[in-house]
Amino acid sequence: MAQFELLSELSGRPDRPQGELAEELGLDQTTLSRNLKTMVEHGWIAGSPSVLDRRKALYSLTAEGREMLRLALPHWQEAHDHVQKQMGADWPVVWAMLDRVAVAVSGQARWAVLVTALRK
Fold first, then answer.
1. Which residues of the chain fall short of a pLDDT of 50?
2. What's the confidence (pLDDT) of residue 29?
3. Residues 64 and 47 sit within 8 Å (Cβ to Cβ)
4. pTM, two decimal places
5. Distance between CA atoms of 63 and 54, rounded to whole angstroms?
6. In the chain, how many domains are there?
7. Whole-angstrom Cα distance, residue 120 to residue 15?
8. pLDDT of residue 109
């Protein structure tokens, strides 16, 4: 799930520093570092030094990463639709509760963006 979210996050907003990605995705630095390393090794994302601070790397999707996201999206959507079907009329309540949990745990409403995107 974290890798899919990372691909999605970078698809819309490239050249992101690790700290910003960790905050946006609600991931700790260790988990994010492990995912970034794996995804760089697969060639799905690339890191390049920041022009403003050469100590920081900025991450973006590669062509392979965009293709992986394109291939993964239908499977993710299928899983999403299955869960939504199982929840039935309770689906909006479930999403609202998940949003509240995410806010409580991470201190930010990043799930609100995801919920909005999923409803389209």
1. 109
2. 84
3. no
4. 0.70
5. 24
6. 1
7. 26
8. 46
